[in-house]
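Re: that backbone. Tokens:
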């Protein structure tokens, strides 16, 4: 009963506002307001805040390798202030820096690809990746040749050994060896004048030969009578002698002594040059020769012959032949002879650093008692003193 009373009291309290200002008389007769079942309302859940993903800093997409280690900084920001975690590929190490990490590659540079990918996360969202393009592959740079300055001719003094060979028209051969000095004077970019002088020793020594043939025929007939041998044959005593001789001469000659030379050449070109000019030499010394004559004489003598009655020869008998040799030697010495040469050289000269190599041929005249043409060849190596201008 108590429960029913409480329900009725509650209903009255709820209905009182609807009939406020009204009396009980205003309630329709026989009508009692009732309360139906109430609707269920779920409680409102609190709104969760939106999470911001990390953002990589700008300007980190490219890296150019240098000679040193491959290392660079990586930075990302998070609007929510969350702690960020960086992930690096294999062979990469990291160290914390302000606002990010310092990434360092610990592997072989040849194993690197063209790009490397790094990621960052705030542990609330998926990792955010960053691709960094690496310019670490060695690229063969085109070789740019600097324009070379043309070779400059040098003024200066050169000194070195020389050798020359000469052969004269009469068959004599000369060998000359000595020291050569030259002073070069450039007159154009590709032309210089070279004044040269030389001193040395000359030697000419050889053996030559010649032969001559002479025949002296002596025939003497002395009829001492004819002896009849029968059968129409007569023995005729006649002395008939024939002689012939041949002489071979060989001689040795030599010339030994010092020489001096002087010349002026013009050289055309730069590092390799064509050379021509005029050069002369004077040779001093003694000249000696030794001649040996060998004479061979052959004698043929007919002692007798058979002839017919009318004097016609039938046959020769008792023919005697003999020979002998005669050797004659002679020598002569000419003291302090002076021989001169003058020639035009044609050759090539090449500069090899401070050294110069020259070689060529020459043709000219040898002058002594007479004038004889000669041909020669020679070479010299000289060292250039002084600095390049």
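Recovered sequence:
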């Amino acid at each position: 009963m108590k429960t029913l009373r409480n329900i009725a009291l509650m209903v009255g309290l709820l209905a009182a506002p609807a009939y406020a200002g009204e009396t009980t008389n205003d309630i329709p007769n026989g009508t009692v307001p009732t309360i139906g079942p109430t609707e269920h309302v779920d409680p409102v859940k609190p709104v969760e805040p939106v999470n911001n993903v990390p953002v990589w800093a700008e300007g980190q997409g490219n890296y150019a390798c240098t000679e040193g280690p491959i290392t660079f900084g990586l930075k990302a920001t998070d609007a929510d202030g969350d702690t960020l975690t960086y992930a690096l590929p294999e062979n990469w190490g990291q160290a914390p820096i302000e606002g990010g990490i310092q990434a360092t590659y610990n592997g072989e540079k040849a194993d690197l690809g063209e790009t490397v990918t790094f990621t960052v996360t705030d542990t609330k969202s998926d990792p955010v990746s960053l691709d960094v393009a690496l310019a670490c592959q060695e690229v063969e740079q085109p070789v740019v040749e600097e324009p070379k300055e043309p070779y400059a001719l040098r003024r200066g003094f050169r000194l070195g050994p020389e050798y020359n060979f000469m052969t004269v028209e009469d068959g004599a051969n000369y060998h000359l060896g000595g020291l050569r000095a030259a002073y070069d004077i450039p007159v154009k970019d590709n032309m210089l004048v070279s004044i040269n002088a030389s001193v040395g020793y000359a030697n000419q020594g050889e053996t030559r030969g010649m032969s001559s043939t002479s025949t002296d025929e002596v025939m003497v007939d002395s009829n001492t009578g004819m002896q009849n041998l029968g059968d129409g044959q007569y023995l005729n005593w006649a002395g008939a002698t024939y002689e012939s001789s041949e002489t071979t001469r060989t001689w040795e000659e030599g010339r030994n002594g010092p020489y001096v030379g002087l010349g002026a050449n013009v050289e055309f070109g730069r590092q390799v040059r064509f050379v021509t000019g005029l050069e002369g030499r004077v040779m001093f010394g003694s000249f000696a020769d030794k001649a040996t004559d060998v004479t061979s004489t052959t004698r043929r003598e007919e002692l007798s012959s058979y002839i017919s009655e009318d004097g016609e020869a039938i046959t020769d008998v008792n023919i005697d032949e003999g020979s002998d040799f005669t050797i004659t030697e002679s020598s002569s010495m000419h003291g302090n002879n002076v021989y001169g040469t003058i020639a035009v050289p044609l050759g090539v000269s090449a500069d090899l650093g401070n050294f110069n190599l020259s070689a060529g041929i020459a043709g000219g005249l040898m002058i002594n008692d007479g004038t004889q043409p000669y041909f020669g060849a020679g070479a010299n190596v000289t060292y250039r003193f002084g600095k390049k201008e």
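Residues 156-385 form one domain. The helical segments are 2-15.
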